[in-house]
Amino acid sequence: MLDLLPEKATTCWLKHGDGLVGWGEAARHDTKGGDRFADLEAWWRDFTAGLVVDDEVRVPGTGPVAFSSLAFADEPGNSSAVVPRVIVGSRNGVRWITTIGDTGEEPVTPVREPGTVRYSDGLLSAAGYRTAVEEAVRRMRAGSDVRKVVLAHDLLATTSEPLDPRFVLGNLAARYPSCWTFAVDGVLGATPELLLRRTGNEVRSRVLAGTSWPHDEVSADDLAGELLSSGKNRAEHGYAVDSLAESLSGFCDEMSVPDEPTVLRLRNVLHLASDVHGRLAGSEPASLLEMLDAVHPTAAVGGTPTPEAVRMISELEGMDRGRYAGPVGWLDGEGNGEFGLALRCAQVRDSEDGPSQVRLFAGCGIVSDSDPEQEVAEAEAKLLPVREALEGVQ
Ligand SMILES: C=C(O[C@@H]1C=C(C(=O)O)C=C[C@H]1O)C(=O)O
User: Fold this and answer.
1) CA of 382 to the centre of ligand 1 (A)
2) I want to staple 337 with a disulfide (CB 3.0 to 4.6 A). Which of 129, 222, 331, 364 is the partner?
Protein backbone atom coordinates (compact mmCIF):
# COMPACT_ATOMS: atom_id res chain seq x y z
CA MET A 1 0.00 0.00 0.00
CA LEU A 2 2.76 2.43 0.99
CA ASP A 3 4.62 2.30 -2.32
CA LEU A 4 1.49 3.50 -4.08
CA LEU A 5 1.34 6.63 -1.93
CA PRO A 6 3.30 9.89 -1.97
CA GLU A 7 6.74 10.10 -0.45
CA LYS A 8 5.26 12.30 2.27
CA ALA A 9 2.98 9.44 3.42
CA THR A 10 5.03 9.01 6.56
CA THR A 11 2.31 8.66 9.15
CA CYS A 12 0.80 5.23 9.51
CA TRP A 13 -0.74 2.50 11.63
CA LEU A 14 -1.15 -0.75 9.68
CA LYS A 15 -1.73 -4.43 10.41
CA HIS A 16 -2.49 -7.12 7.82
CA GLY A 17 -3.00 -4.30 5.28
CA ASP A 18 -5.76 -2.63 7.32
CA GLY A 19 -5.34 0.66 9.12
CA LEU A 20 -4.53 4.28 8.36
CA VAL A 21 -1.88 6.10 6.33
CA GLY A 22 -1.62 9.88 6.36
CA TRP A 23 0.37 12.78 5.00
CA GLY A 24 0.57 16.53 5.36
CA GLU A 25 -0.14 18.37 8.58
CA ALA A 26 -3.50 20.05 9.17
CA ALA A 27 -2.64 20.58 12.85
CA ARG A 28 -0.16 19.48 15.46
CA HIS A 29 0.29 19.79 19.19
CA ASP A 30 3.53 19.35 21.13
CA THR A 31 3.66 18.73 24.82
CA LYS A 32 5.79 17.23 27.58
CA GLY A 33 5.80 16.35 31.26
CA GLY A 34 3.56 14.46 33.65
CA ASP A 35 0.41 16.12 32.23
CA ARG A 36 1.13 15.13 28.61
CA PHE A 37 -1.89 12.80 28.33
CA ALA A 38 -4.32 15.34 29.85
CA ASP A 39 -2.84 18.15 27.78
CA LEU A 40 -3.28 16.19 24.52
CA GLU A 41 -6.81 15.30 25.54
CA ALA A 42 -7.74 18.95 26.15
CA TRP A 43 -6.18 20.00 22.82
CA TRP A 44 -7.95 17.22 20.87
CA ARG A 45 -11.36 18.05 22.37
CA ASP A 46 -10.85 21.69 21.54
CA PHE A 47 -9.61 20.99 18.02
CA THR A 48 -12.42 18.58 17.08
CA ALA A 49 -15.09 20.87 18.60
CA GLY A 50 -14.17 23.51 16.02
CA LEU A 51 -14.52 21.25 12.96
CA VAL A 52 -17.40 20.80 10.56
CA VAL A 53 -17.23 17.08 9.76
CA ASP A 54 -18.82 15.38 6.78
CA ASP A 55 -18.35 11.64 7.43
CA GLU A 56 -20.20 9.26 5.09
CA VAL A 57 -18.48 6.09 6.36
CA ARG A 58 -18.70 6.39 10.13
CA VAL A 59 -16.48 3.58 11.36
CA PRO A 60 -13.59 3.87 13.85
CA GLY A 61 -10.85 5.89 12.12
CA THR A 62 -13.10 7.98 9.83
CA GLY A 63 -13.54 11.72 10.36
CA PRO A 64 -10.64 13.64 11.93
CA VAL A 65 -7.82 11.48 13.29
CA ALA A 66 -4.83 12.45 15.40
CA PHE A 67 -1.71 10.27 15.35
CA SER A 68 0.23 10.56 18.55
CA SER A 69 3.47 9.39 20.05
CA LEU A 70 4.13 10.02 23.73
CA ALA A 71 7.39 10.03 25.63
CA PHE A 72 8.08 7.05 27.90
CA ALA A 73 8.99 9.24 30.86
CA ASP A 74 7.51 12.32 32.50
CA GLU A 75 10.97 13.89 32.25
CA PRO A 76 12.71 14.32 29.83
CA GLY A 77 11.00 13.67 26.51
CA ASN A 78 8.70 15.32 23.98
CA SER A 79 5.26 14.09 23.00
CA SER A 80 3.19 15.14 20.02
CA ALA A 81 -0.01 14.64 18.06
CA VAL A 82 -0.33 15.25 14.34
CA VAL A 83 -3.52 15.56 12.29
CA PRO A 84 -2.67 14.73 8.67
CA ARG A 85 -4.28 16.71 5.85
CA VAL A 86 -5.03 13.47 3.99
CA ILE A 87 -5.76 10.06 5.52
CA VAL A 88 -6.35 6.86 3.57
CA GLY A 89 -8.09 4.20 5.65
CA SER A 90 -8.98 0.55 5.24
CA ARG A 91 -11.00 -1.62 7.60
CA ASN A 92 -12.58 -5.02 6.85
CA GLY A 93 -12.90 -4.32 3.13
CA VAL A 94 -14.16 -0.73 3.56
CA ARG A 95 -11.82 1.97 2.21
CA TRP A 96 -12.04 5.72 2.60
CA ILE A 97 -10.17 8.99 2.22
CA THR A 98 -10.43 11.83 4.71
CA THR A 99 -9.20 15.30 3.83
CA ILE A 100 -8.89 18.31 6.08
CA GLY A 101 -8.85 21.77 4.52
CA ASP A 102 -6.90 22.45 1.35
CA THR A 103 -5.08 19.21 0.46
CA GLY A 104 -3.01 20.13 -2.61
CA GLU A 105 -1.45 17.41 -4.76
CA GLU A 106 1.50 15.27 -3.64
CA PRO A 107 3.25 13.46 -6.50
CA VAL A 108 3.80 9.72 -6.12
CA THR A 109 7.51 8.99 -6.46
CA PRO A 110 9.25 5.60 -6.42
CA VAL A 111 10.43 4.37 -3.00
CA ARG A 112 14.14 5.19 -2.55
CA GLU A 113 16.67 2.78 -1.05
CA PRO A 114 18.80 4.00 1.87
CA GLY A 115 22.16 2.74 0.51
CA THR A 116 24.62 1.16 2.91
CA VAL A 117 23.92 1.12 6.65
CA ARG A 118 26.65 1.60 9.26
CA TYR A 119 26.12 0.92 12.96
CA SER A 120 27.72 2.54 15.97
CA ASP A 121 27.13 2.57 19.71
CA GLY A 122 24.27 4.68 20.98
CA LEU A 123 24.17 6.31 24.41
CA LEU A 124 24.22 2.86 26.07
CA SER A 125 26.35 0.29 24.23
CA ALA A 126 25.68 -3.47 24.38
CA ALA A 127 28.57 -3.77 26.87
CA GLY A 128 27.13 -0.95 28.98
CA TYR A 129 23.74 -2.64 28.80
CA ARG A 130 25.20 -5.88 30.13
CA THR A 131 26.69 -3.96 33.08
CA ALA A 132 23.33 -2.29 33.76
CA VAL A 133 21.55 -5.68 33.72
CA GLU A 134 24.18 -7.14 36.09
CA GLU A 135 23.64 -4.25 38.49
CA ALA A 136 19.84 -4.65 38.39
CA VAL A 137 20.18 -8.38 39.14
CA ARG A 138 22.65 -7.65 41.95
CA ARG A 139 20.25 -5.15 43.54
CA MET A 140 17.26 -7.49 43.25
CA ARG A 141 19.22 -10.34 44.83
CA ALA A 142 20.35 -7.99 47.60
CA GLY A 143 16.72 -7.37 48.55
CA SER A 144 15.67 -4.34 46.48
CA ASP A 145 11.89 -3.70 46.47
CA VAL A 146 11.99 -3.94 42.67
CA ARG A 147 10.88 -7.39 41.50
CA LYS A 148 11.01 -6.65 37.76
CA VAL A 149 12.65 -3.83 35.81
CA VAL A 150 12.71 -3.38 32.02
CA LEU A 151 16.10 -2.13 30.88
CA ALA A 152 16.88 -1.07 27.33
CA HIS A 153 19.76 0.18 25.21
CA ASP A 154 20.11 1.98 21.90
CA LEU A 155 22.06 1.59 18.67
CA LEU A 156 22.81 4.20 16.02
CA ALA A 157 22.42 3.45 12.32
CA THR A 158 23.64 5.80 9.61
CA THR A 159 22.39 5.33 6.06
CA SER A 160 24.55 6.55 3.15
CA GLU A 161 21.47 7.99 1.36
CA PRO A 162 18.59 10.00 2.87
CA LEU A 163 16.11 7.60 4.45
CA ASP A 164 12.75 7.19 2.73
CA PRO A 165 10.58 5.92 5.62
CA ARG A 166 8.34 4.05 3.14
CA PHE A 167 11.30 1.71 2.48
CA VAL A 168 11.50 0.68 6.14
CA LEU A 169 7.74 0.66 6.73
CA GLY A 170 6.99 -1.44 3.64
CA ASN A 171 9.59 -4.00 4.68
CA LEU A 172 8.34 -4.14 8.30
CA ALA A 173 4.71 -4.52 7.18
CA ALA A 174 5.66 -7.34 4.78
CA ARG A 175 7.82 -9.27 7.27
CA TYR A 176 5.81 -8.62 10.44
CA PRO A 177 2.18 -8.66 9.22
CA SER A 178 0.81 -9.60 12.65
CA CYS A 179 2.47 -6.54 14.24
CA TRP A 180 1.26 -2.96 14.01
CA THR A 181 3.56 -1.08 11.63
CA PHE A 182 3.59 2.53 12.73
CA ALA A 183 5.14 5.88 11.90
CA VAL A 184 4.33 9.00 13.87
CA ASP A 185 6.37 12.18 13.88
CA GLY A 186 9.68 10.48 13.05
CA VAL A 187 9.25 7.35 15.22
CA LEU A 188 8.76 4.21 13.16
CA GLY A 189 8.63 0.51 13.84
CA ALA A 190 6.50 -2.64 14.00
CA THR A 191 5.19 -3.40 17.46
CA PRO A 192 3.62 -6.69 18.52
CA GLU A 193 2.17 -5.11 21.68
CA LEU A 194 -1.22 -3.37 21.78
CA LEU A 195 -1.41 -1.18 24.86
CA LEU A 196 -5.10 -0.19 24.48
CA ARG A 197 -7.71 -0.20 21.74
CA ARG A 198 -11.01 1.50 22.40
CA THR A 199 -13.97 0.77 20.12
CA GLY A 200 -17.17 2.31 21.52
CA ASN A 201 -17.34 1.05 25.10
CA GLU A 202 -15.07 -1.95 24.51
CA VAL A 203 -11.40 -1.89 25.44
CA ARG A 204 -8.73 -4.43 24.53
CA SER A 205 -5.06 -4.93 25.24
CA ARG A 206 -2.45 -7.48 24.16
CA VAL A 207 0.06 -7.80 26.97
CA LEU A 208 3.45 -9.30 26.10
CA ALA A 209 6.29 -10.24 28.41
CA GLY A 210 8.49 -13.33 28.51
CA THR A 211 10.57 -13.89 25.39
CA SER A 212 12.48 -16.58 23.56
CA TRP A 213 14.24 -16.43 20.20
CA PRO A 214 15.37 -18.93 17.57
CA HIS A 215 18.72 -20.56 18.47
CA ASP A 216 20.66 -23.80 18.02
CA GLU A 217 18.13 -25.14 15.50
CA VAL A 218 15.57 -25.74 18.26
CA SER A 219 12.17 -26.11 16.53
CA ALA A 220 9.58 -23.35 16.92
CA ASP A 221 7.27 -25.78 18.74
CA ASP A 222 9.99 -26.68 21.24
CA LEU A 223 10.82 -23.01 21.78
CA ALA A 224 7.14 -22.29 22.44
CA GLY A 225 6.90 -25.23 24.86
CA GLU A 226 10.03 -24.10 26.74
CA LEU A 227 8.69 -20.57 26.98
CA LEU A 228 5.34 -21.70 28.40
CA SER A 229 7.03 -23.85 31.03
CA SER A 230 9.73 -21.32 32.02
CA GLY A 231 9.11 -20.07 35.58
CA LYS A 232 11.22 -16.97 34.97
CA ASN A 233 9.27 -15.98 31.84
CA ARG A 234 5.93 -16.77 33.44
CA ALA A 235 6.83 -14.53 36.39
CA GLU A 236 7.84 -11.66 34.05
CA HIS A 237 4.57 -12.11 32.18
CA GLY A 238 2.49 -12.21 35.35
CA TYR A 239 3.85 -8.83 36.51
CA ALA A 240 2.94 -7.23 33.16
CA VAL A 241 -0.60 -8.66 33.04
CA ASP A 242 -1.30 -7.76 36.68
CA SER A 243 -0.14 -4.16 36.21
CA LEU A 244 -2.36 -3.64 33.15
CA ALA A 245 -5.38 -5.41 34.64
CA GLU A 246 -5.14 -3.55 37.95
CA SER A 247 -5.00 -0.09 36.42
CA LEU A 248 -7.65 -0.84 33.77
CA SER A 249 -10.15 -2.50 36.11
CA GLY A 250 -11.20 0.83 37.66
CA PHE A 251 -12.63 1.92 34.27
CA CYS A 252 -14.53 -1.31 33.53
CA ASP A 253 -17.65 -3.02 34.81
CA GLU A 254 -16.62 -6.28 33.15
CA MET A 255 -13.18 -7.61 32.38
CA SER A 256 -11.70 -10.86 31.15
CA VAL A 257 -8.08 -11.76 31.78
CA PRO A 258 -6.89 -15.15 30.52
CA ASP A 259 -5.70 -17.60 33.21
CA GLU A 260 -2.90 -18.83 30.97
CA PRO A 261 -0.82 -16.96 28.37
CA THR A 262 -0.52 -18.11 24.76
CA VAL A 263 2.61 -17.89 22.59
CA LEU A 264 2.90 -15.21 19.91
CA ARG A 265 5.34 -16.34 17.23
CA LEU A 266 7.22 -13.73 15.21
CA ARG A 267 10.15 -14.37 12.89
CA ASN A 268 12.75 -12.92 15.30
CA VAL A 269 11.23 -13.77 18.72
CA LEU A 270 8.42 -15.58 20.52
CA HIS A 271 6.51 -13.92 23.34
CA LEU A 272 4.12 -14.99 26.05
CA ALA A 273 0.90 -13.12 25.26
CA SER A 274 -2.38 -12.39 27.08
CA ASP A 275 -5.32 -10.67 25.39
CA VAL A 276 -7.29 -8.67 27.96
CA HIS A 277 -10.80 -7.43 27.25
CA GLY A 278 -12.99 -5.01 29.19
CA ARG A 279 -16.35 -3.27 28.94
CA LEU A 280 -16.19 0.36 29.98
CA ALA A 281 -18.39 1.38 32.90
CA GLY A 282 -20.93 4.21 32.97
CA SER A 283 -22.81 6.22 30.37
CA GLU A 284 -19.84 8.53 29.84
CA PRO A 285 -16.87 6.20 30.06
CA ALA A 286 -13.27 7.34 30.43
CA SER A 287 -11.47 8.57 27.33
CA LEU A 288 -8.71 6.57 25.68
CA LEU A 289 -6.05 9.13 26.70
CA GLU A 290 -7.27 9.05 30.30
CA MET A 291 -6.96 5.26 30.35
CA LEU A 292 -3.53 5.39 28.69
CA ASP A 293 -2.40 7.82 31.36
CA ALA A 294 -3.54 5.38 34.05
CA VAL A 295 -1.99 2.22 32.59
CA HIS A 296 1.34 3.63 31.36
CA PRO A 297 3.98 2.39 32.07
CA THR A 298 2.84 -1.19 32.52
CA ALA A 299 5.36 -3.71 33.81
CA ALA A 300 5.96 -4.76 30.17
CA VAL A 301 8.12 -1.63 29.73
CA GLY A 302 8.54 -0.25 33.28
CA GLY A 303 8.58 -2.81 36.06
CA THR A 304 7.13 -3.71 39.45
CA PRO A 305 6.53 -1.76 41.61
CA THR A 306 6.23 1.00 38.99
CA PRO A 307 7.71 4.08 40.73
CA GLU A 308 10.78 2.22 42.05
CA ALA A 309 11.31 0.45 38.71
CA VAL A 310 11.06 3.71 36.74
CA ARG A 311 13.62 5.27 39.08
CA MET A 312 15.93 2.27 38.57
CA ILE A 313 15.55 2.60 34.78
CA SER A 314 16.67 6.21 34.76
CA GLU A 315 19.57 5.42 37.14
CA LEU A 316 20.89 2.35 35.33
CA GLU A 317 20.16 3.23 31.68
CA GLY A 318 21.31 6.83 32.07
CA MET A 319 19.84 7.69 28.64
CA ASP A 320 16.71 9.47 27.48
CA ARG A 321 14.35 6.85 26.02
CA GLY A 322 12.47 9.55 24.14
CA ARG A 323 9.34 7.96 22.70
CA TYR A 324 10.68 4.41 22.78
CA ALA A 325 8.41 2.26 25.00
CA GLY A 326 5.84 5.07 25.16
CA PRO A 327 2.31 4.82 23.74
CA VAL A 328 2.00 5.34 19.98
CA GLY A 329 -1.16 5.23 17.87
CA TRP A 330 -4.21 7.18 16.79
CA LEU A 331 -7.56 8.44 18.04
CA ASP A 332 -10.62 9.74 16.26
CA GLY A 333 -13.23 12.37 17.11
CA GLU A 334 -15.65 9.80 18.52
CA GLY A 335 -13.22 8.56 21.17
CA ASN A 336 -12.15 5.39 19.34
CA GLY A 337 -8.50 4.62 18.78
CA GLU A 338 -5.59 2.23 19.10
CA PHE A 339 -2.29 2.70 20.90
CA GLY A 340 0.56 0.25 20.91
CA LEU A 341 3.82 0.40 22.78
CA ALA A 342 6.58 1.94 20.66
CA LEU A 343 8.82 -1.16 20.54
CA ARG A 344 10.94 -2.65 17.72
CA CYS A 345 11.30 0.92 16.59
CA ALA A 346 13.64 3.75 15.74
CA GLN A 347 13.70 7.51 15.92
CA VAL A 348 14.72 9.08 12.61
CA ARG A 349 16.65 12.30 12.52
CA ASP A 350 15.44 14.15 9.43
CA SER A 351 17.80 15.01 6.64
CA GLU A 352 16.85 16.49 3.29
CA ASP A 353 19.87 15.07 1.54
CA GLY A 354 22.94 13.11 2.58
CA PRO A 355 23.12 10.47 5.32
CA SER A 356 20.25 9.94 7.75
CA GLN A 357 20.75 9.02 11.36
CA VAL A 358 18.41 6.54 13.00
CA ARG A 359 18.37 5.57 16.70
CA LEU A 360 17.14 2.03 17.41
CA PHE A 361 16.08 0.72 20.82
CA ALA A 362 15.42 -2.64 22.45
CA GLY A 363 14.96 -3.81 26.01
CA CYS A 364 14.13 -6.78 28.20
CA GLY A 365 12.37 -7.47 31.46
CA ILE A 366 14.92 -8.27 34.18
CA VAL A 367 14.09 -10.34 37.25
CA SER A 368 16.36 -11.64 40.02
CA ASP A 369 17.23 -14.85 38.15
CA SER A 370 18.00 -13.13 34.80
CA ASP A 371 21.24 -14.08 33.06
CA PRO A 372 22.86 -10.86 31.73
CA GLU A 373 24.34 -12.62 28.70
CA GLN A 374 20.93 -13.99 27.71
CA GLU A 375 19.32 -10.56 28.16
CA VAL A 376 21.91 -8.99 25.83
CA ALA A 377 21.14 -11.70 23.24
CA GLU A 378 17.39 -11.09 23.67
CA ALA A 379 17.82 -7.36 23.10
CA GLU A 380 19.87 -8.07 19.95
CA ALA A 381 17.04 -10.30 18.65
CA LYS A 382 14.58 -7.45 19.28
CA LEU A 383 16.76 -5.03 17.29
CA LEU A 384 16.62 -7.27 14.20
CA PRO A 385 13.29 -6.14 12.67
CA VAL A 386 14.40 -2.52 12.19
CA ARG A 387 18.00 -3.45 11.32
CA GLU A 388 16.85 -5.83 8.60
CA ALA A 389 14.25 -3.37 7.35
CA LEU A 390 16.95 -0.68 6.98
CA GLU A 391 19.18 -3.18 5.20
CA GLY A 392 16.34 -4.28 2.91
CA VAL A 393 16.56 -7.95 3.93
CA GLN A 394 13.68 -9.75 2.19
C1 LIG B 1 10.98 -3.83 26.00
C2 LIG B 1 10.72 -4.52 24.89
O3 LIG B 1 9.80 -5.53 24.81
C4 LIG B 1 8.99 -5.84 25.93
C5 LIG B 1 9.65 -6.82 26.81
C6 LIG B 1 9.46 -8.18 26.68
C7 LIG B 1 10.22 -9.15 27.55
O8 LIG B 1 11.03 -8.71 28.37
O9 LIG B 1 10.06 -10.38 27.42
C10 LIG B 1 8.53 -8.67 25.75
C11 LIG B 1 7.76 -7.82 25.02
C12 LIG B 1 7.70 -6.39 25.36
O13 LIG B 1 6.71 -6.18 26.31
C14 LIG B 1 11.39 -4.17 23.59
O15 LIG B 1 11.05 -4.75 22.57
O16 LIG B 1 12.25 -3.27 23.58
Assistant:
1) 8
2) 331
